[in-house]
């Protein structure tokens, strides 16, 4: 097997579309957060809601950035694998922060996460971990051939 064939088979075929879907989800959530009238008119003083998720300008920027990076990462398989690991590490940290922030409730918190955000970020971290592990195993199997 040539190195070009190994590179083509280094990740599962479904990884790039899965990363694109995650990117679109976060991009839509971030844009929807910016389009809520309360968030667009007010600074970061209060938290508003899009569906069941809290929105603040800082959280919207994070969601839009994660979405754009996901769409960019979906263009290459190695970028998709790296994006999965970054999702895992970043959102595991955001989930930990969110649990502590929600449990101790500080009104001055600029991110102002709620429990729905914690679940979303936690599930995203788990999805990033699962996708990253499956893709890494597929890449190792392709390299062993």
Protein model, in words:
This is DUF4383 domain-containing protein. It holds the Pfam family DUF4383. Keywords: Membrane, Transmembrane, Transmembrane helix. It comes from Amycolatopsis vastitatis. The protein has 145 residues and is mostly helical. It has one domain. The chain is built from 6 helices and 2 strands. Strands 1-2 form a two-stranded antiparallel ribbon. The radius of gyration is 17 Å and the shape is elongated.
Can you summarize the main beta sheet? 2 strands, antiparallel
Q: What is the structural class?
A: mainly alpha
Mean pLDDT rating: 85
Overall shape: it is elongated
The number of distinct structural domains comes to 1
Blueprint of the fold:
Blueprint: H1 3-8, H2 15-35, H3 37-41, E1 48-50, E2 53-55, H4 57-73, H5 77-104, H6 115-144
Antiparallel strand pairs: 1-2
Helix pairs in contact: 2-4, 4-5, 5-6
Sum this structure up briefly:
With 145 residues, the chain is mostly helical. The protein contains six helices and two strands. A hairpin with a 2-residue loop joins strand 1 and strand 2.
Key terms:
single chain; 145 residues; 6 helices; 2 strands; elongated; membrane; DUF4383 domain-containing protein; transmembrane helix; transmembrane
